[in-house]
């Protein structure tokens, strides 16, 4: 399926050119995560047991809705832009009207660094949503949550920026456990990296 067909299947509307500039300097412009990359990722990678999936900078909600539909697990999207948050909520309504859902799906209007990491949160997805300064703060929040409630935690980076990778490799106990080189892409940055913090 192409982008439009995937949206139609999920009864959502997330296709479109990126637009608008974020109000905060450290946050990047919206761009939807390509479905083809998500399909390739989840054909090769397995989440930890009893996952709760968090998309940091979820835009219009494509990734949390896609993951919810594919795995029937709790998903959460965190979005700072009020307009995108409203579109994500609207997409959730369209999706739930057509799909039967057991697990919860929710969107939170907040900047990522203010999101309160829950003891059940285990998989965190980043599609280059903000600067390294914000990323460090969010990873620190995740690490603090891990120290209080030890469990296996995964970090998924889609098109990982070099400074994100350097920080995780050299500034944290997270270890690279999986790498997906996207099909039909020649740029080395066109990939996904999964880092894990194992339960002690």
From TrEMBL:
One of its GO terms (molecular function) is methyltransferase activity. It comes from the Bacteria. One of its GO terms (biological process) is methylation. Keywords: Methyltransferase, Transferase. The keyword Transferase applies. InterPro entries: SAM-dependent_MTases_sf (IPR029063). This is Class I SAM-dependent methyltransferase. It comes from Lysinibacillus xylanilyticus.
């Amino acid at each position: 399926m192409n982008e439009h067909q995937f949206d139609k299947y999920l009864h959502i509307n997330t296709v479109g050119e990126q637009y608008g500039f974020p109000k905060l300097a450290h946050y990047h412009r919206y761009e939807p995560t390509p479905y083809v990359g998500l399909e390739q990722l989840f054909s090769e990678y397995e989440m930890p047991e009893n996952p709760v999936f968090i998309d940091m900078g979820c835009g219009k909600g494509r990734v949390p809705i896609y993951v919810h539909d594919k795995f029937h697990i709790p998903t959460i999207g965190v979005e700072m832009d009020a307009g995108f948050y409203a579109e994500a909520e609207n997409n959730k309504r369209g999706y739930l009207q057509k799909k039967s859902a057991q697990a919860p799906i929710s969107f939170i209007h907040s900047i990522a660094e203010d999101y309160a990491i829950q003891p059940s949160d285990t998989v965190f997805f980043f599609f280059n949503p903000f600067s390294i300064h914000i990323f460090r703060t969010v990873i620190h929040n995740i690490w603090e949550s891990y120290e209080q409630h030890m469990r296996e935690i995964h970090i998924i980076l889609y098109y990982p920026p070099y400074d994100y990778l350097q920080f995780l490799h050299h500034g944290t106990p997270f270890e690279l456990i999986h790498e997906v080189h996207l099909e039909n892409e020649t740029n080395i940055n066109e990939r996904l990296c999964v880092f894990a913090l194992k339960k002690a």
